[in-house]
Amino acid sequence: xxxxxxxxxxxxxxxxxxxxxxxxxxxxxxxxxxxxxxxxxxxxxxxxxxxxxxxxxxxxxxxxxxxxxxxxxxxxxxxxxxxxxxxxxxxxxxxxxxxxxxxxxxxxxxxxxx
Amino acid sequence: xxxxxxxxxxxxxxxxxxxxxxxxxxxxxxxxxxxxxxxxxxxxxxxxxxxxxxxxxxxxxxxxxxxxxxxxxxxxxxxxxxxxxxxxxxxxxxxxxxxxxxxxxxxxxxx
Lengths: 114, 111
Description:
- The structure holds 2 protein chains of 2 kinds.
- Chain A is an all-beta fold.
- Helix content of chain A is 0%, strand content 49%.
- Chain A is built from no helices and 11 strands.
- Chain A has strands at 4-7, 10-13, 19-25, 31-37, 43-51, 54-57, 64-66, 76-78, 87-94, 104-105, 109-113.
- In chain A, the strands form 2 sheets. In chain A, strands 2, 4, 5, 6, 9, 10 and 11 form a 7-stranded mixed β-sheet that branches. Chain A has a 4-stranded antiparallel β-sheet with strand order 1-3-8-7, with no helix packed on it.
- In chain A, a hairpin with a 5-residue loop joins strand 4 (31-37) and strand 5 (43-51).
- The radius of gyration of chain A is 13 Å and the shape is globular.
- The termini of chain B are far apart.
- In chain B, a hairpin with a 6-residue loop joins strand 9 and strand 10.
- In chain B, the strands form 2 sheets. In chain B, strands 2, 4, 5, 9, 10 and 11 form a 6-stranded mixed β-sheet that branches. A 5-stranded antiparallel β-sheet of chain B has the order 1-3-8-7-6, with no helix packed on it.
- Chain B is built from no helices and 11 strands.
- By secondary structure, chain B is mainly beta.
- The A-B interface holds A 4, 6, 33, 35, 40-45, 48, 58, 90, 92, 97-100, 102-108, 110 and B 31-32, 34, 36, 41-46, 49, 51, 89, 93, 95-99, 101-104.
């Protein structure tokens, strides 16, 4: 069953804690993305990676960190510096970055603060 | 700055009627446009896309129209069904840049 798998589906963070959201794809896509979605809002780009061992900041990177050690995996860490982390986090991938390519999305992780 | 936005935040239509969801964009360099459907609590699903060298593209029950002169994009859904109820996003990009998403329109289908 091919696609993008995000885990966990729900995550709770205590104050001062770092948490990591997992994103795995078996589509052999080069590019991967992380978006944040607040209630009733659109998607805002946090980070993206065009290729293994390389990533770029999006519009709202502050308080987040990523790594891209493997083509299949693009984990997102929400650090304690992110003061308002409650949101729906979406991971996406595409066969290449930019251009006329479709981004495919995972089912999302909903992060809440305890 | 450059942005992608929507004219109507909510749209209610009768089951069986046609739906039209609109989107305005401001980046005249945008050359690729895409529509996504997002159901509650799920990730966005690809519906249809269009490149800037086209002004119309049809899929199954959906049509996307692109008017580059006024920087306007629309999604038409024929014979709207209850399963079409969702939030619809337009997105665009140009060159080697990630997609930029609009805020979304909520479509409610009245049975």
